[in-house]
Amino acid sequence: MPRVLVNGPASWNTLVRLATLPEPRSQTLFASSHHDGLGGTSAGKALTLAALGVDVALHTALGDDREGSLVRAALAHPRISLVARAVERTEKHVNRMADDGSRVSLYLELPQPAPGAAPSFDGVDAAVLDLADHSRPLLSAARAAGVPVWCDVHDDDGAGDYARDFVAGADVLLVSAARLDDPRAYLTDAVGRGCRLAVCTDGAAGALALDADGWIEVPAAPVAEVVDTNGAGDAFFAGLLSGVLEGLPVERALARASAAGAVAVGTHELGAPSATVAALDDRAAGVVIRRL
Questions:
Q1: Which domain holds residue 87?
Q2: DSSP state, residue 231
Q3: Does residue 27 form part of some domain?
Q4: Is 26 within the bounds of a domain?
């Protein structure tokens, strides 16, 4: 079985559903629903990868607190090996989710673990290094070990400093179109600097990818009802990675990624923890990938 190291955030979140995101003024709002649950981009990727038959070593930071216990329980899976650095408090957010899929995340706790030794990359087929300060030193460590680096820089705008090391260090890069003025220019720059596959997701509009052979158009897999967009990007990422590790052509791996994202938006769970390879590939058969 393939083995992946994932390093980055796992959190315990309160998710509040609103019809629309509020304007910046004093007002009283009524939520249509709310619930607490697992959060964190690395947690979403780990759960989806595990569901798809990938063994995951998840390195994160957790406190010895109620939220940490809840995160540990939510990540209990036979394919996930959890390695948690001790911090005073577990990461915690309040996510305001709008019916159109937009979101505002309020960080209540953001742990900063003390620097530690790099994990072993022996037997690791890919290193997923998510946006976190404790992921940054692993970019060079993974490269030195000859392990492909996968990075998800979320809503990077191409100009801010925080994501630059991750963009520069990625063999495979995933970004959202949310804050990009020119996604094509962003992807072209990434591939020109040595990234072998760069993908920009754009919600219901699908995704655009670029590799050494050119542009790839990825439609969004059909969705009967959008329940919750939280973790959809993580599921897309995990579907793509599982396909690449399986040796699928990039087009088929991207179709599986699209199917995984569609499964994720149909559930309140983080990512697509109940997905199967067979179900995703059946759904992916209806996703027509085009080389442009």
A1: 3-21+32-291
A2: T
A3: no
A4: no
